[in-house]
């Protein structure tokens, strides 16, 4: 089976390398992208999309389908990681640490779960005592990281940034919570079901905004047709539609990244990990 998989990978790679021979040379000034496409984007982007940020205009408008499927790929990556790694077998033992004394409790009964609080905390088998300074500093900076992530998403149509960047930054704040405290802290605060719902919701927001444009008389992702539904300056409707798309991308990327992290570091058990 491994040999068959190796053959498939080699054949696929060879086909991809063969296809690259038809691409124009790197930096070729006579390539289609350099002769007319790039010039059109640079000269007409603001006039056609009302978005001052050229990168956002290209990603969310001119090649909106491509960005939508990129978001779907991120969602599928999180789903595949969940399906391949998630282990639903009940854990047979639990480890706790009595904080005032440092005594470690090993509970072998899987059904007996002690209440975690000021005196007891979860621990892994290969547990390293948490550092008060690290935990305190991370608790202070995590909200600022999340605020900056929201800023990046919100300003994606006006400045460099957007859903992918903001989603990764926001997910990094949640991953930092797991690293500075422990994985159980993150899993308790954000349930597995909630992460799955948010990952799917982000993709649905993107698709939904595009689909709403169709019954309004436009094509898929034709943001200009949202004028009757969105209050505000009609000339800025396209930018607002792209902002909604960026929000959907940010939600999907955040949830998918956290799902991937939790399942990889805990080997699908959601009980121990970095």
Describe this structure in words.
By secondary structure, the chain is mainly α. The protein has one domain. It is built from nine helices and three strands. It has helices spanning about 1-20, 30-50, 55-60, 65-85, 130-155, 165-180, 185-190, 190-210, 235-265, and strands spanning about 95-100, 105, 120. It has a three-stranded antiparallel sheet, with no helix packed on it. A hairpin with a 4-residue loop joins strand 1 (about 95-100) and strand 2. Helix 6 packs across helix 7 (about 185-190) and helix 6 (about 165-180) runs parallel beside helix 9 (about 235-265). The radius of gyration is 24 Å and the shape is globular. The model has no long low-confidence stretch (mean pLDDT about 85).
List the helices and strands and how they pair.
Layout: H1 2-19, H2 32-49, H3 54-62, H4 64-85, E1 94-98, E2 103-107, E3 120-122, H5 132-154, H6 163-180, H7 183-189, H8 192-212, H9 237-265
Antiparallel strand pairs: 1-2, 1-3
Helix pairs in contact: 2-3, 3-4, 4-8, 4-9, 5-6, 6-7, 6-9, 8-9
Structure described in brief:
The chain has 274 residues and is mainly alpha-helical.
Mean pLDDT: 83
Compute the separation of the termini in Å: 33 Å
Beta percentage is under 5%
DSSP E strands, number: 3
Number of domains: 1
* Number of helical segments with 4 or more residues: 9
Largest sheet: 3 strands, antiparallel
Query: What assembly state would you assign to the polypeptide chains in this entry?
Result: single chain
Model regions low in confidence, pLDDT < 50 over at least 5 residues:
none
The sequence of SSEs as H and E is HHHHEEEHHHHH
Q: Structural class, please?
A: mainly alpha
Shape: globular
Order of strands across the main sheet:
2-1-3
State the helicity in percent bands. 55-70%
């Amino acid at each position: 089976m491994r040999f068959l998989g190796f053959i498939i990978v080699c054949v696929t790679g060879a086909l991809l390398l063969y296809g690259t021979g038809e691409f124009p040379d790197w930096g070729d000034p006579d390539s289609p992208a350099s002769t007319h496409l790039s010039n059109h984007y640079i000269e007409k982007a603001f006039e056609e999309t009302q978005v001052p940020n050229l990168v956002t205009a290209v990603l969310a408008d001119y090649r909106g389908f491509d960005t939508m499927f990129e978001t779907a790929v991120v969602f599928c990556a999180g789903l595949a990681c969940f399906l391949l790694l998630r282990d639903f077998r009940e854990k047979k033992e639990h480890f706790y640490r009595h904080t005032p004394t440092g005594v470690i409790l090993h509970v072998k009964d899987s059904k007996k779960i002690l209440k975690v609080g000021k005196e007891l905390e979860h621990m892994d088998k290969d547990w390293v005592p948490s550092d008060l300074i690290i935990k305190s500093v991370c608790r202070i900076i995590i909200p600022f990281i999340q605020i900056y992530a929201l800023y990046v998403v919100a300003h994606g149509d006006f400045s460099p940034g957007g859903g992918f960047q903001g989603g990764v930054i926001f997910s990094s704040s949640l991953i930092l919570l797991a690293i500075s405290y422990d994985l159980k802290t993150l899993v308790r605060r954000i349930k597995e079901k909630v992460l799955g719902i948010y990952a799917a919701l982000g993709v649905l927001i993107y698709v939904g905004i595009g689909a709403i444009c169709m019954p309004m008389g436009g094509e898929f992702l034709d943001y200009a047709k949202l004028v009757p539904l969105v209050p505000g300056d009609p000339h800025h409707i396209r930018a607002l539609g792209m902002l909604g798309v960026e929000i959907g991308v940010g939600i999907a990327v955040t949830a998918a990244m956290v799902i991937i992290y939790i399942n990889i570091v805990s080997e699908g058990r959601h009980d121990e990990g970095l």
